[in-house]
Amino acid sequence: MSIPVKPFPSYKWRWLSVAPSEGLLKAPVFLGVIRALSQFEGDAFNSDRLIEELDRVRRDTNTDINLARTGDRNLIRNSGQYWRGTGLLTAKRGEVELTDFGRQVALGRITNDEFAALMVRNTVLPNPATYGADEVANWRRVGLRIKPFELILAVMDRLGRTYGVPEAFLSSNELISVVIPLAGTKATVEKTVESVFEFRKGRLDVSEWPDCVPAANDKRLAREFLLFLANFGICQIDQTADRYEQRFYLDEVMNAEMQQGDEQSFLENIERIDEEVATSRNSEIPLIIERTRVSASVLRRPNQSRFRRDVLDAGARRCILTQEPTLEVLEAAHIIPVGNGGTDLVGNGLCMRVDIHRLYDSGKIRIAPNGSVTLHEQIEYAISYADLPKRVNFPQEIRAENLEWRSRYA
Prior knowledge:
Blueprint: H1 27-39, H2 48-61, H3 75-79, H4 81-84, H5 100-107, H6 112-122, H7 133-141, H8 148-163, E1 169-171, H9 172-183, H10 189-200, H11 218-231, E2 236-237, E3 247-249, H12 273-281, H13 285-297, H14 304-314, E4 330-334, E5 349-353, H15 354-361, E6 365-367, E7 373-375, H16 400-409
Antiparallel strand pairs: 1-3, 2-3, 4-5, 6-7
């Protein structure tokens, strides 16, 4: 195989920040910050009440990142590209101003799954929010535009289709050593898949290939693409391997081909965000996230049976929203997901019919700490859910702090 050539000397993949903080891409932290910002639009980024709220996010999500920075080292000054580069926060300096898209995400009108699908479909390199003008000019001069998430998922998917589902993964080293250099040459997905597999099996020597991660943070910047996919439930991560050998994998191959394109990102055409949201809702990404979530929820845990029994008993063995009493279709829904530290204790569960549970987990049904129920626009007028109540009463066993966490971070 011929050695790929860099399209220009500074070619590398960077999505959001030049100084990455991996913990910011964990969904509860990322969404918790945008919801905190939404409460204080018009405030300075270092206002006392915003700092206090960001510190609450830090405590509630157990992140080790200092979100409540002060003065010239406030969070947005140092890491604001995480929210500006994803189209949630405007470029206005000095005070908090969300985009309309950011407000929809903060209010839950765009669910976490839909947000993830939107990022996959619309993220295009170079991102004008995080690449300098000279860098953008280099990309445009050689006619290079890359949709990194779609490419990563297409490679994973094709690996699984070609070599078997257990091979449907990428490690950070494979992304850095093979995928990124080949993407700079506009290589086909087929060529990239073959090269990754040969590299994986020790049959492809890349020692003479170009180094596309020469600076100190470049490996971390490349890894952020995989971390986002894992943090938002599109793929899973093998926690047992060393950092750059960890496998990010799909549980199943996808039913639809993911095509590379040269369309503009929504950051360049923000006015068509509603159209892009609608398209993303109908993509395969939300279905992949839901299947991954369901697969993870049925893994056997020591207290799972007791949790279901206790939650159903506390809820009088009726769905909290539909009052359905048929035991075969009732489940115990976690308020704080297990993956985010939620427990298998009765105070962290609600009795729900299977479909209600799925909609609750996907953010299509939201239940506020005061019991008010909000339906996503996709199901608001659906015949099957037209009679759902506007408010529910919680069993006395439910812990209020769990409901509050859910409303802020899920």
